[in-house]
Amino acid sequence: MKTNRFIYFVLFAIAFVVASCQNDDPNALRKEFIEVYATPDCVEPLERTHLPVRGGEVTLYIKSNIQFDLEWQDGNIDEFGQVKPWAHVSPLQSIGDGLWKITVSADKLSEEAVYEKRSGVLMLKAPEIHAGRFFVVDQGLTARVASDFSWLTGSEKPNETISDVVYENWTNLQKNKGFKTTIIPGQEKAWVYAKAGYIKLGNSDGMGADLIAPHEAMMRYDSLLVVSFKAVVQNGPSTGDFYGDTEGVYGDGEQPEDPKPEPEPDPTPDDPTPSDPNNPGEGGTELIKPMSVAIAPAADEVDNNTLTIEVVGGGVIRDFITTGATSITFNDIPTYNRMHPDFPANMFDGGEYLVFIESTKANPITANTTVRFIAGSMSDTPAAKNSRIFLDDIYIYRVNAKFDEDFYQLNGGKSGKDQVLGGASNN
């Protein structure tokens, strides 16, 4: 919301400057000017510019026949509530009569492989004569759909299920976020679950599931889209035993009845007394306590690592522009590392993906365009192997070919693992 308010300020400021650059005669143009160019020799001034999402700088040339002051504003607030500009602007450098040079630089847009645009304004002002120019600098892309699923609650760890909530039981507020799913014929519910800030597709009985992103009517104006998301596959059964916990497998938000405790067997002289864990058994072996650390799963415990992304309502996968295909399947969804000391906070590391969508004459992007994520089979016959996939940070961005970076080329000319800011960019 902060970004939106700042953009509104920019639009107001530009309107103000346009008005202030007129003299008393509404039919006459002012002789004073301040213009921004990409090179000293350019004839056409820039409307705006952008900085690379990986970080970098851009050099701008300012031509003017008046003296002016330079100021940068971007409305960025740090985690402590303090104003902290995200870009650095060098001092004005005079390089000729009526010609100045500046450099605008910034660090990498995000450490989380999120590309949501941030904007700032170069304010070139001559207040004594009510003249000026407001020049916008962007980094990132405009998000048509954006969700980090922070509005969902459920079990924090992927294998735990006791607090998970199946889609059918989501609140109206959660469903109104616009994400939808499909009930497989013959099933009573869709096997989509709310976790603690992320989503699980599929269940432990071999059933698949899909998740459909919200519609955004503004997409009808777009010709290129980028979908970014994070995905990992489940390893091991749905249970808390890997962490020394005791919860069971419920997966629909229902709480289990308290199980009746099994009677303890009578201790024998050669066995340790259950109520005394410090009593050694035969041969002086200490009683083994319940496991509380993660164990790497066997290969057959890792679920099917296939995820299909389908464009619905208009547009094709840019990789298949010649054939017009509308879906792409990835068979390399990684598993999370539950033995990592930062688990589960880092569970999506290395699972960042980008998918590119293009509008064509035969299949244009429309107001009904959306994206569908499919894990496993949507058949009513359970698969032999589970396909439980976890999703987070689903974004759909518009790409302005005139102003924005070509993310398709930055990603190696293909959809797949995120090579721009994701884990694949470090390989």
Kindly describe this structure.
The protein has 427 residues and is mostly beta strands. The chain is 6% helix and 28% strand. It is built from three helices and 22 strands. Strands 10, 11, 12, 13, 15, 17, 19, 21 and 22 form a nine-stranded antiparallel sheet that branches. Strands 1, 3, 5, 6 and 7 form a five-stranded antiparallel sheet that branches. Strands 2-9-8-4 form a four-stranded mixed sheet, with helices on one face. The two termini are 34 Å apart.
Tell me about the biggest sheet? 9 strands, antiparallel
- Assembly form of the protein: single chain
**Beta strands, count:** 22
N-end to C-end Cα span: 34 Å
Count of alpha and pi helical runs: 3
Rounded average pLDDT? 83
Range of strand content: 25-35%
Helix content: under 10%
Which sequence of SSEs, written as H and E, runs from N to C? Answer: HEEEEEEEEEEEHEEEEEEEEEEHE
Task: Briefly note the structural class of the backbone.
Answer: mainly beta
Which radius of gyration do the C-alpha atoms yield?
A: 28 Å
Taking pLDDT < 50 over at least 5 consecutive residues as the criterion, the unreliable ranges are: 8-28, 240-260, 267-297
Shape: elongated
